[in-house]
Structures are given as C-alpha cells and as structure tokens.
Write a structure and sequence with these properties.
Layout: E1 13-16, E2 26-28, E3 32-36, H1 38-41, E4 47-50, E5 54-55, E6 60-61, E7 66-70, H2 78-90, H3 95-122, H4 124-133, H5 137-156, H6 165-170, E8 173-179, H7 180-184, E9 190-196, H8 203-212, H9 219-230, E10 239-244, E11 248-253, E12 256-261, H10 273-285, E13 288-294, E14 297-305, H11 312-321, E15 326-330, H12 335-345, E16 349-351, H13 356-365, E17 374-378
Parallel strand pairs: 8-15, 8-17, 15-16
Antiparallel strand pairs: 1-7, 2-5, 2-7, 3-4, 3-6, 9-14, 10-11, 11-12, 12-13, 13-14
Helix pairs in contact: 3-4, 3-5, 8-9
Length: 409
Amino acid sequence: MTVPLASLGAGDLVLVTSGETVPVDGTILSVSAVLDESALTGEALPVARALGEHVRSGVLNAGTPVNVRATATAADSTYAGVVRLVQSAESTPVPFVRLADRYSQFFLIVALAVAGVAWTIGGLSRAVAVLVVATPCPLILAVPVALVSGLSRAATIGIVIKSAAVLEQLSHCTTLLIDKTGTITRGRPALSEVLAAGAIPVDEIVRPAGSLDQTSPHVLANAIVQSALTRGLTLEMPTDVREAAGHGISGLVDGHRVKVGTAPWCDIKGSPAWARSAMRRARLDGALTVFVGVDEQPAGALVFDDPIRPDVVRTMRALRRRGIRRIAMVTGDRIEIAEMVGSIVGVDAALAERTPRKSSTSCATSRRWPPPSWWATASTTHPPSRWPTSASPWARERPLRRRRPPTKS
C-alpha cells in the first residue's frame, strides 16, 4: 500500500525496495540491509546494517528490499533537517545587496530633495535632469545583474552555485573547505585491485563475477560489470541466480556455479595469504572486499575503493597559487580514510565523520584559523547550508604525511 509521506508516523512499518530512498528515520526489521549513505555522510562505498540498527532518512537502499519501523515523522527526520538548513541559506540575501537596498532609500530621498531645489531655481527641465542623473536604479540593479552574470558564467563551465553570497566573498577567500566524496573522489565505487587465489588469471575472476552480477541491483555489481567491460571481456547471461541479503549472490555461468559475496558465502575456509592481504587492504585503506568462488572453490578477491580524480593534485596547487592559504577536506568517512586521501591530494587538515550539520559547524570554526580569513566550500554531493555560530573542534589539524595512491591491477 502506498501512502503520502506526510502521513507516516512513529511506529509505522515501511517497505523500502531496492534503489529507493529511506523516507523517514527508523529501525531495520530485516535480517540485514545494504545502504548507500553518501548523500548524508559522503561515504561512497555501501554500508551493511544489521537487524535492529538505526537508519536515517535520505539514504539509498543499495541491496534487497528491507523493512523499516519508523521512529519519527517525515518532518522530524534527518533529511528534513538538511533541507531546512538549505532553505535557511537560500532565504538570506547577499550582504552587498542588503547594503545597496538600504542606502538606495536614503539616496532616493536626497535625489528628490535636490530635484526640488533644482525645480525652484531652474525650472522643470533642470529638475528632470537631476532625476535622470541621480536615479538610484543603477545602485539597485548593478549588483543583482553582476551576480546573475557570474552565476550564468559558472553554470556554463559546470559549476553550480547555490548562493550568490559566494561570489561576493570569493575575492577575499583564503581558506577552502572541500568535500571528499564526488569532489576530490569520483563519488562511486570502482574495482581497484584483483587478488587471485593461486595462479588463476585475473580475467578468469572478473569475467564470471561480472557475468553473474549483471542481474544484481547491488551498488558494487555495477562496478564489477563495468570493470569487466572495460577489460574487453565477453559476459554471459547467468541462470539459476540466487541472492541472499548480506551474504552474496550465486548462479550458473557457462555451466559453472559462481558465487560473489562474503568469504563464508564463497566457500573460503581458514585464512589464506591472499585473503588476509585483501582484508588488510580493506582495514587500512578503507576499501571494500568482495570474494569470488567458482565450483565450490575460492577464485580470488575483488577490492573496491572510491578513486581520486586524476586532476585533483594539480587543482590544489592552482588554488594555492591564486591565494588559498589553507585547504581542509570535510567528509563523513572514517578518520583513517580521510587522512589517507588528504595525504595524497595535499590538504592541510582532514575533518572526518562529519554529518551535514557538523560540517556547517566546522565552517564556523574555520573562521578562527590564523590569520583571519573568509572561507569557501566546495561539494558535489551535499547541499550547502548557512553556517551556525556554534563551534566544534577540528578532527585533525596536524600536517598530513604524503602518500602515493595505491597501484591498480
């Protein structure tokens, strides 16, 4: 049964199908769920949630359908709070526009007074001349026209600016807070490494996994399929496909039983060296590991991460040449992932585990960086919000060690 979002209340049972957005905050009633929380936390890789765990509105169901027990109404949900922050930002006019509107009223009074004097002394023609020359219209219209022109110019080169106040403050900006997911990184998982169990060729691991995942709605399935196609592999349509939420998927590919999922699901027993290497990479670098099995035997492991855009380092250097003194990266990811990415791209500080509201607080805190400076923010996944006056401590402010990006297979 489909009901209006506004009618949902605490205690209602909601079915969230694959690819749909969780409408309200609630508790998971299914055995497990795979969620894409990038819209709220910036974490590009999917997150597994178990029975009884809390789920926030605005996250995407990246796995099989799940049941959620609502704990709040839509108006009180997490995503509604983000929307209110955005509306607060958009309802605040640009400071210079407010200044122009305020002084234009006094300017009009003075202009009318001078025109009256001119009429008394020189007649109607001189009064009209004064009104034409001293009209407040240029003062009122000049700023909005310039801002609209700047916004239009930015849009033509792919830059979307939510607030015109950004353009006014940008010339004074010396501090930049930049989002990680979708701005520094591509914002979607990609296959970065393939670890084979023994002497199995890499293509013999990717091809059956890609063939099987053609039928899966999982967010990593598309990454596996795209990687197989990029390698020029021919994919077969699987049969007898079975998918278990939180475990994996299995099916027949060219007459072979193929499994993609967790280590137990893929019949991996014990702790072989290649499997330990994959899990260690996932633990240290914030990657995600998926195992592949063929005919009840382990074939290998697929390692996924959110790749860094190739032009980020060059962009950072260009920003510093243009007067940006400090660059901080803001993300909802864990501190280990934030420090790794920050050390590669060359930021001065990495702020991890930040929700949209905490990110706004961090922007207010950045004003106390010496020397005093204006700041700007850049993000492709999170809506901008008005910065509150309350402050919260930076996650890490020490210099980051430089690291090289991981080698891809």
